[in-house]
Amino acid sequence: MKKIPHRLYLTEEQMPKQWYNLRADMKEQPAPMINPATMQPAKEEDLYPVFCQALAHQEMDAQTRFVDIPQEIQEMYKIYRPSPLIRAFNLEKALGTPAKIYYKFEGNNTSGSHKLNSAIAQAYYAKEQGITSLTTETGAGQWGTALSEACAYFGLDLTVYMVKVSYQQKPYRKAVMQTFGANVIASPSDTTNVGRQILQNDPNTGGSLGCAISEAVEKAVSTPNTRYVLGSVLNQVLLHQSIIGLEAKAAMDLLEEYPDIVIGCAGGGSNLGGLIAPYMRDKLTGKADPRIIAVEPASCPSFTRGKYAYDFCDTGKVTPMAKMYTLGSGFIPSANHAGGLRYHGMSPILSKLYHDGYMEAVSVEQTKVFEAATYFAKHETILPAPESAHAIRAAMDEAIKCKETGEEKTILFGLTGTGYFDMAAYTAFIEGNMKDYIPTDADLQRGFDGLPKIPGIQE
Amino acid sequence: MKKIPHRLYLTEEQMPKQWYNLRADMKEQPAPMINPATMQPAKEEDLYPVFCQALAHQEMDAQTRFVDIPQEIQEMYKIYRPSPLIRAFNLEKALGTPAKIYYKFEGNNTSGSHKLNSAIAQAYYAKEQGITSLTTETGAGQWGTALSEACAYFGLDLTVYMVKVSYQQKPYRKAVMQTFGANVIASPSDTTNVGRQILQNDPNTGGSLGCAISEAVEKAVSTPNTRYVLGSVLNQVLLHQSIIGLEAKAAMDLLEEYPDIVIGCAGGGSNLGGLIAPYMRDKLTGKADPRIIAVEPASCPSFTRGKYAYDFCDTGKVTPMAKMYTLGSGFIPSANHAGGLRYHGMSPILSKLYHDGYMEAVSVEQTKVFEAATYFAKHETILPAPESAHAIRAAMDEAIKCKETGEEKTILFGLTGTGYFDMAAYTAFIEGNMKDYIPTDADLQRGFDGLPKIPGIQE
């Protein structure tokens, strides 16, 4: 057994030089996207007006197992990566568990999360194609911040449609994006047809992620040399985020450790899919059989209570339809504080793997999540993002089970980011004002009722 | 020449096991503190009611060159340290300078700054002596946050007197401290005599750091098993913060690099004294002669326009008097956004070294500082704290000079922390609403007029 440090950083030489594409090892592929205009499977070219070609190709490519990370992306990764693999010695001691707990911490960059890993890749490929400007939407703001950093680095213009209520409630998130040079617009806005229409109907609306996506897509397709980018759900995003799991596995290999359980929080799947990638590969290829656990909020339980069905990726219904675990694109998640997990659907790749029995899912209530977050902060000194704290909750629960059974399991979880911009949520918890929200079956049924009909595929 | 990585992290084995005490190599010592009750040099025992004994000893000990870092402190350091030494390849490229720029980044912990290095030490020694509770004050909140983390880790109660105007304007900073279990009280408060008196005179006052210090000291000396702690200025703080410079030097040694110029921002001196410690040692012992530059705000220019004189460390005049560069304890700095640099005095050790010609000092205006901060963020992706950006400004200025002269100088600067809680300042800069404040000679004279009279020493 090697001496285990608190924090292990790979050297630059040890950092992965390729991303890993999970689809190459899946026995059954995720169902193809459906183009709503034709009701036929989408082709790579169908995506070109929205995504740059390299990304459209990555979105559709199920064959290439390892994708070389371009040198320029590697260079920018080196500015903030590798992220540390941390042994939670203090948390273990406080819990009195025989379990060994490791976590991969992605919060040590200005975006405060793992989102930067894909933002850099998406900005780079756009620039390579001669694209000069990108559009995107942001809710809580981590994705918008990450993309602002990437666009500043590569010299691209960026327009971020920020859900109006967030724009007003989180002026500091907006200010971070502006510091990096992004043009941040409260959505709905008068800069798009869809925005103007929504404002005409309801001038006082606070906006929604669905509306912001629609505005960002419209802006991209109607502006020369401009493309739209998205921070989760997509296959390309899981590919880029595989850097998390590859680094984690390389570090654990150095320590001669292998996890019995791998745990990640699940919103659209960007972090979870990235973290588990090399371990899922071991499962798919029969090399090992770790338990893999997705953790989602009880208020937005797409894995645990959703349907595996074709649905739109956005509430505005402008995107292709994907087969995934979904609560329906019309489902309105309650005001859970983990904004990054308030998404109706789930990565089609992860949905397929879950459907086929390769992973488990649990849902947790947010008061239990914040209880874990504050406990973790006091013992490990890191203030976690509410999203990340879902994984902490599940990891602590597994470690407590080990205490009861005496099993010395090795647990790895993803700590996706920091909670500096989520202190209103922490305050609500500390002051006892946090509530739990669990949708009723009737709430869910309303979402399912809005699932699209696709002739011959989904009636 | 070694291959230079973007980020270099020492291994746990390479981390320093001892702090370095600059005084042991100073040919002339800083003047002794004066006890205002006796007007005589303060003795170690005089400090026992306020500081725990180990820290009082460190405060007075000018002999011990290297102080072993207790094992328990090393263990907590390992949770968030080592901090990276970063080569600013992108900044160099953007500036087109032949200079090599390195920075030591202390912002990757929840306190967001280097303050945690001393908070841990101070909490540890208090606990070792059987102290159960600490008090302190905080303005901008980084010190209070750091101490909250340390007290949560060591199981000590903590009461933080937070300047009322900050308490009201920065509820999220308060929330972070509360998350770590600290009792945060808006100062002035009704929990102390001095607080009640101030409130009686002016019920609507927003408070001041001086008042908060007075409350924290009163609370400490009037509560059983309680001591007061302070995050800057003190000799003990410089000792603990030497970890910054020792790590930086160890990393640069591995790269076979030696700085021609070492640059740090200067408020009370905690970061500057820590960063420069091993390089100042080389100067004091004649081993090398790097330039050492302190950077302070033009609005609070203690080095560049202050007097080298005995003064109180607080505006409430309850502390011992120290000989230092000071603007007078009654000097009210203007509303500069770098809250951590709005201090009237300067570490007595650094003051003596500056007085004896071992270092230089420059002052910079805050609009120039934020110009550097946003430029740095766009190229290096880290959003710096306004305090840290003072060092960035000076480093960029030196690198630009190198461009003009063609000199390939090696520059090392301290990036003390992140600016996530300073976005109001960034917004003011981006929107063109930031002003520069430079005190007039008359402003300064009012501060000097309040310097204490000490019979036979300072008339």
Q: Going across the major beta sheet of chain A, what is the strand order?
A: 1-6-7-17-12-13-16
What would CATH call the architecture of the largest domain in chain A? Answer: 3-Layer(aba) Sandwich
The CATH top-level class label of the largest domain in chain A: Alpha Beta
The pair of chains with the biggest contact is: A-B, 44 and 45 residues
How far the N terminus sits from the C terminus of chain A, by CA atoms, comes to 57 Å
Number of domains of chain A: 2
Secondary structure class of chain A reads alpha/beta
Number of strands of chain A: 17
Helix content of chain A: 40-55%
CATH topology tier name of the largest domain in chain A: Rossmann fold
The overall average pLDDT of chain A, rounded, is 94
Rg of chain A to the nearest angstrom? 21 Å
Q: How much β-strand is present in the residues of chain A? A: 15-25%
**DSSP helix count of chain A?**
17
Multimeric status of the protein: homodimer
Overall shape of chain A: it is globular
User: How many strands, which pairing sense, and closed or not: the largest β-sheet of chain A?
Assistant: 7 strands, mixed
Give the low-confidence spans of chain A: none
Catalytic activity (chains A, B): (1S,2R)-1-C-(indol-3-yl)glycerol 3-phosphate + L-serine = D-glyceraldehyde 3-phosphate + L-tryptophan + H2O
Function (chains A, B): The beta subunit is responsible for the synthesis of L-tryptophan from indole and L-serine.
GO cellular component, one term (chains A, B): cytoplasm
Family (chains A, B): Belongs to the TrpB family.
